[in-house]
Amino acid sequence: MTAGMGASVLVGRDAEIRAMRTALARPPAVVLIEGEAGIGKTRLVREVLARRPDLRARVLSGSCPPLREPFPYGPLFDVLRTLAHAVPAGLSPVCGALRPYLPELAERLPPPCEPLHDPAAATHRIFRAVGALLAAVCPAVLVVEDLHWADDGTRDLIRFLIEDPPPGLAVVLTYRREDLPAPGLPLGRAYRRAAGHESLLMRLEALDAGEVRTLAAALTGGPVSARLADELHERTAGIPFVLEEFVRGPGAPTAVPALLQEAMADRTAGLDAPALAVVHAAAVLRDPAQEALVTAVAGLDEEAGAAAVGAALRAGVLHDWGEDRYGFRHGLAQQAVYEALLGPDRRRLHLRAVTALAALPAPPLVRLAYHARQAGAVEAWRRYAEDAAEHAREIGDTALAVELLEGLLDDPGLPAEDCARLALRLSRAATIGLTHRRTARLLRRVVDDGGALPDAVRGDIRLNLGLLLNNQAGDHRQGRLDTVRAVAELRERPARAARGMAGLAMPTWGEEPYAVYQEWIGRAERIAAAHGDEALRLAVRGNHLVLRMALGEGAVRAEAEALLAAGAADRAGRLELARMCGNLADAAAWLGKDPEADLFRREGDRIAAACGAPYLRGIIDATVLRLEWSQGRWEGLGERARQVWEAAQGAYGIESEARLVLGLLGAAHGEWEEAAEHLAAAALDDPHNAASPVLAAAGAAAVRIHLARGRAGAACSEADRGLARVRHKGLWGWAADLAAAGVDAYVRAGRIADAGRLTGEYAQAIAGRDHPLALAALPLCRAAVARSAGQPQEASAHYRRAAAQFTALRRPHSAAQAVEAALECVPDADELALLAAEFERIGAVREAARCRRALRGSGHVAAARRGRGGYGEGLSPREADVARLVASGRTNREIAELLFLSPRTVEQHVAKVLRKLKVSSRTEVRTP
Predict the structure, then answer these.
(1) What is the model's pTM?
(2) SS3 329
């Protein structure tokens, strides 16, 4: 993947940093840090020592190199050589024993000691000399890294030093447990903490997915999705060095970093032939596998295989995953070994894997399909893949079924007689899944092929393609064309044609007047009535209920509940019930009918989960986001919206609503550019292919943003475009926000007559309709017109009526906005103070700040708060607002404008934020 200019940061080690700092502050101390290669031992040590301004101790750093014949005591002597200008006078005479080993210090060391003929005594004198020299330069921190590569003499010397260290000495040792000569014994023998000495043993663990996300974001200099973080965590096992190398690598996103390739080659070079065989087998198997399976693929007998697996484990090449499963520590290590295999060797190992897996009591079909394909066994691959796809469909794993069928259909050697059958299966599975791009391309190739495909088969595939384009791809124009054409091709299969007609009756799709949708659903109802197909009947009736709800009919809920109570006999029927519930929940939420939306979303999610329909569940998740926005449940809503967006995998019907909610939140926070970007992606960039209610809501938000920025002309232009589309379609129930915003824009621009005409037109369009949200917005339109006519009392009364209706509909933000407008007409400082608190409770920080500014301007003195302590080291609500804006890159001046504060006040808040978050720079501030 491409990395930005971000620098490496230390992530997930706060507890270790605190523990090390505590230990080093109380010498004599010993700190042992255990961790696998790349886990961040060196980085941790450097971080602790670099960020200790109070640490006056001298830092002496050395390491043990991986030499075939290490020089005795070499790492310690290398450290001591750096003291050339720091050796004090008056050293103990025993330090003279070091003259032969430290010629760089000869002038500062005492005279040479008399030679000793007893080797043990000579060694002891060297140990005492090293200890005396270190004591003379204390306070000091002695760091020795990679202790696993140390010679026995160096280990003995270090053990001598830490058993009775000089008073001012702290010793830090790092090592890899898997590379120690004696497992679990970094010093060769068990270490016993000396009485009265500080001692700390730490094992560094891999980062979790959240920490991987934080580190990857710092490395790339940009946001990292939760889904990508999960993939990175799986590929790198959360090992920081592996992650950094992978992210910063200049190659393809899937390439193994060169340093990791070299490291794996170095580790495998020392293995004997059987151990190397099981390593190669594990690389081909990819995932951790049982010893018997690894041994079989390696071509070894049971005894030889067990010994070989043990050797690979001891060498640190394979990892014990528990429950008799052995494999690589992370995916990149597996890939490095796999890619080093020659083609013929890989093919032979894959064939062995097919044989071994096929012999299992429950053969894993997906793995068999993979190995058969890699081995070049095409017929076996097709057989296993198709069986695996059917099994995935049966257990509700739609994503896997689609992936397998896509692979089969993308095979250029696929026989023609198999192509139509697999295309039809793929098209049916894809309509309830999330992914769509590759499927749409493959299905397009099939339906546009000039071969002798029967019209009925072509029409069936094309119908599902049209549904896929309308729902997942958001390509309503092309999807509608394909669906209409499919209806014609299905002339000999009227039941399937009726399913297409029902799709063409979905009012959110396309730009036709609602009479066109009524015509399509009427045709579909007549055909469905003549057929006994339960799934068809439910599909047609469900879409008809959605259309009737959009038109404002009031009996929809009862009819839908009756269908739910009756249930469905098979999975196809249950899928249609889930689809109906998802669509009705979506429609009800747009119209302000939250109790119905809650009912249908619960039922829909339950049925969709049982059927394995991720797209339908995603639609329901998106509806929940909009309900949370409307109902003022904003805490954490932005993160939830991003999660839904990421999980949608590009499915437009889900993604667009998540982006809409992010745009609405951005607008409420005064983040104009971010809001505009989300609103454009949700609908405004491609209005012809946008879902009608999303387009109306995005247009209304864009109008409000223009008005907030003093751009009345641009606001009117946006309103004109949006209202023209609503007039053409004739469905005004979705236009509550757009109508009210349009009237405000016309009034602000001096288009008073247009404001009046729009208000009258809107009132007539929704009269007698079951459109509660639209009816609640009507007083807003009337209030704006009255206000423009110089009638503040009447305007205030209209705003109050709107606020009451919004409150009844559980729309606290809309209600608060209406009250604010009423108070602008007829001021009341005490009520305005309460309103500021309500905006703050919801999370509408800009509007809360606007109310406070109005209060300051009126000279209102806020009542003293009682019974509440300070925030201590926690952020106050205002500081949290400032922190969020700082994290988004806002300058102090921009923050002041957004929160209606003076630049000086913002400076003070920023200083408190930095202090409380314990960061030194604005760039380190993260959204609280």
Answers:
(1) 0.75
(2) coil
